[in-house]
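User: I'm preparing a small set of examples for a lab meeting where we compare how different chains pack in three dimensions. I only have the primary sequence for this one, and I'd like the structure in token form so I can line it up with the others. Please keep the answer compact; I'll paste it straight into my notes.
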Amino acid sequence: MSSSSDKNLSDQFIIWVIILTQFATPFMFSGVAITLPEMGRELHASAVALGLVESVYLGMSAALLLPIGRIADATDRATLFKIGLVGYSLCTLFISFLPSIELIIAFRAAQGAFGALLMATGMAIISQKIPPERLGKVIGLSVGAVYAGLSAGPLIAGWITAHYGWRAVYSLTFIPLMISTLLAVWALPSHWQPMKTRLDWVGSVCIFLAMGLLIYGSASLDSVWGIVGLVSGFGFMLLFFFSQTKVTLPLLDLKEMRANYNFSHALLTQLFMYVGAFGATFVLGLYLQSIQHFSPSEAGQTLVVGPILMAILAPLSGRLSDKFNKRILTTFGVSMAIISMSLALQLDQNSGLPLILAVIIFQGLGFAFFSSPNIAIIMSSVDASKYSLATALSAKMRALGMVFSMIIITLVTSVYLGKQTIEQAPDDYMQVLAITFSVFTGLLIIAWLFSASAIKARQQPDQVTANQ
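Assistant: Understood. Below is the structure token output for the 468-residue chain.
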């Protein structure tokens, strides 16, 4: 009895350590958007280059999530989680000393690679230790921690940037990340075993090249090589999906996804939700500081409203998903995001604070009611032996959504601004906003259709494959 009690206590502590890391990494990520205008002025970086600071991070994460998810299931999730946290922490520290935007972009790519290790394993470790009847609640706490980190990022990073400069955001954020690392190394036991299955190297290389070429091409449309890169990126993406139908152990089992209705629809809904909503915060951060002339601190205080709503309501949404139809909650969340984008289309250079806050509030409500139930659908739709892969696929769709959201922004910015800064062409940047938010609205409508169509589907509620 004592041994069982000790194990339960140890598991609970490990879960809270992971939840702490779920707070720490998005804290740094959300703070980046606030530092970008100040970083751009110091390093004389264009709007396109500032976009790459976010895009390469997301692209590297998206490129590596599936291979890492497959490796984690076959080796040891805890070991990979700890390696990811160590590397992520060190990259955060190094960025604070870098002298050029090019080096910062390179280290952000490395940070994204280590971030992929965290995203592919953290939720899988939690799902492995929590019984299905309490999974929604714990996922809600984890998602709430993510949004708490997102909410603290703009507020604290804005204050630090205003008083001590953008570099201090990275060096100070290293401290909680390092504390999380030490706790994870101490609390998470490793059980490494050699990988006995073969990794799909063809698919891994194809998805890596696709992400890299899409990001390069979207940022270089003023050159022939940029167009070639963009087209090649889409070509490698198609080649990746084709390769997954030809190998014995694919990274992405398309046949299994088609057979698992709940799983596939939840993943597709998540993809379009993030493509259509994620980039809005990045665009608004630049809009507030470069068009509305908010200080970094004021911009952070404004943007923090949405993540605060997410942090407060995501745990509630997780609890509701244990009791009610999860699809109704996800559809409601997407509906809130559509309202946010519709309001964002009304923004101009003279928009008042009430309209800006309305955009942020409805986006916060959207993600708060969408994320926890959708993750619960994904994790409860697969067998326990595939938790890491399901986590990686969930994170993959989220990261792909973020990447494509940023690619859309970078494409439109590259066409209308080129190498100009926002301050040099404010009217052109407002065109960027209008076109970007129009595209986002259309993508969110697609997400709504995926989510709503699954509400009354004749499918087992959640555990489609759990008992296989």
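A couple of notes for your slides: The chain has two domains: 2-186+249-453, 199-248. The CA atoms of residues 21 and 180 lie 6 Å apart.

User: Perfect, thanks.
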